[in-house]
């Protein structure tokens, strides 16, 4: 879901090195630099008058997915550390 949403929201121009987690955003900020050291530019302004309303259930589900993914990644990292520590003891 993470890669699909990033590609959808950014018109398939998502920075491949940017992996969202609970406290990050999916898109790069304008006039900053991406992982290829290329300046991020605005290609289309949002029409604030005709902006569709965000589906709150979809947004809630996405936030829950991000938190769950963060927990899984943290557990995976802790397990790898534990495995390496056990191998180092042998």
Structural notes for this entry:
It is a single chain. This protein folds into 2 domains: 1-52, no CATH class; 53-90. It contains 2 helices and no strands. It has helices spanning 2-9, 56-89. The mean pLDDT is 77. The chain starts with a helix and ends with a helix. Helices cover 47% and strands 0% of the residues. With 90 residues, it is an all-alpha fold.
Short structural summary:
By secondary structure, the chain is mainly alpha-helical.
Spell the H/E element sequence. Answer: HH
| Amino-to-carboxy terminus distance | 40 Å
Estimate the mean pLDDT confidence: 77
Please describe the biggest sheet, giving its number of strands, its sense, and whether it closes into a barrel. none
Q: Roughly how many Å is the radius of gyration?
A: 18 Å
Overall shape = flat
**Low-pLDDT residue intervals, each spanning 5 or more residues:** none
Helix content: 40-55%
Structural class: mainly alpha
- What is the helix tally? 2
Strand content: under 5%
How many structural domains in the coordinates? 2
- Say how many strands there are: 0
Topology, element by element:
Layout (H helix, E strand, L loop, with lengths): L1 H8 L46 H34 L1
Features:
90 residues; mainly alpha; 2 domains; 2 helices; 47% helix
């Amino acid at each position: 879901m993470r890669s699909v949403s990033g590609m959808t929201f950014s018109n398939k121009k998502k920075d491949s090195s940017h992996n969202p987690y609970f406290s990050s955003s999916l898109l790069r900020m304008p006039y900053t630099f991406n992982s290829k050291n290329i300046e991020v530019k605005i290609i289309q302004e949002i029409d604030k008058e005709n902006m569709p309303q965000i589906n709150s259930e979809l947004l809630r589900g996405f936030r829950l997915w991000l938190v769950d993914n963060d927990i899984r990644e943290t557990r995976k990292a802790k397990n790898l550390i534990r495995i390496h520590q056990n191998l180092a003891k042998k």
